[in-house]
Amino acid sequence: MHVEGFSAVGTFKDETVTFNDGALWQKLGSMIKKGMYKESREALITSMLQQNKREYLVHKLAGVIEQTEEDFMFSGESTEDVQAGSRQVRPVLEAELRKAEEQENGKKGEILVEKTDEAKESKAVVESDAKVEELIKMCNWDCYLQRYPGLKSKTWEAEHPKKGLEYAKTHYIKNGHAAGRNCQCDADMLAVKMVQHSQDAAEVEAQLAEQTDLLAEAAAEAELIKDCDWGCYLQRYPKLRNEKWEQERGNHDYARKHFLQFGRHNGKNCKCDATFN
């Protein structure tokens, strides 16, 4: 016996029909014939169908379901059983397919929502980063710590040698800006950089390119202090020494400020010579 196309769904040998889908159709046909298909049995049949992938359901509905009656005939069922089986099996398959499609569409919807949320979050991050960059574009963290020495943390710098003054940047973004603190270099700070740290000074000058008055003031001050030594200045004028400042801040910045505000106008000497080395 030969039925065109039957090899796609099963085989017929020694008067026995075997289906490729694990005998699912034979099981359903046998249950229907024996009157086992009732509402109470629907859960069992549904469970059997759920074990097959969605692709299987689509394939059955698209092509094989049209062969259902023919397949049942070769399994030995009567015409009435075949027709009854076809009527009863089709709704189950269609219901399962709808359920599978709903689940798939639900997953697609969830994925779309996730992608949309991710896109929004990504955009928010980019916008936030742009705002931060705009906020700190004129900042110099060394100058920030000079303005507010209480923020300086030698311990953090020692523990994070590769991160530089990142903690100062973090403080300004989170707290300093809101508190109205200034993160830029002033003319005096820039002048010192011009004398002692030319590379850092070049970066600051680029940041403050539009502030021509400040740059001019810094350049003039740098010319005044370029050969000064504040240790020698304090040795020459010991009454100016401020030990408390030195202990708390570890520098001679007060001596420089004194020279610029008073000393140079009074003819004081800020350079070293044979006497003060």
Condensed summary:
This protein is mainly α and 277 residues long.
Highlighted features:
277 residues, mainly alpha, 4 domains, two-stranded antiparallel ribbon, 14 helices, 3% strand, rod-shaped
List the helices and strands and how they pair.
Elements: E1 10-13, E2 16-19, H1 24-33, H2 42-50, H3 54-62, H4 68-74, H5 79-136, H6 141-147, H7 154-159, H8 166-176, H9 187-196, H10 198-207, H11 212-225, H12 230-236, H13 243-249, H14 253-263
Antiparallel strand pairs: 1-2
3D structure, described in words:
By secondary structure, this protein is an all-alpha fold. It has four domains: 109 residues, no CATH class; 50 residues, no CATH class; 41 residues, no CATH class; 51 residues, no CATH class. Helices cover 64% and strands 3% of the residues. It contains 14 helices and two strands, in the order ββαααααααααααααα. Strands 1-2 form a two-stranded antiparallel sheet. Strand 1 and strand 2 form a beta hairpin. The model has no long low-confidence stretch (mean pLDDT 76).
Structural class: mainly alpha
| Low-pLDDT sequence parts | none
Which shape, going by the Cα principal axes? rod-shaped
| Average pLDDT over all residues | 76
Assess the beta-strand content as a share of residues.
under 5%
Helix segment tally = 14
In whole angstroms, the N-to-C terminal distance is 117 Å
Q: Give the spatial strand order of the biggest sheet.
A: 1-2
Number of strands: 2
> How many whole angstroms does the radius of gyration measure?
43 Å
The arrangement of helices and strands along the chain is EEHHHHHHHHHHHHHH
- Please outline the major beta sheet: 2 strands, antiparallel
> What count of domains describes the coordinates?
4
Helix-residue proportion: 55-70%
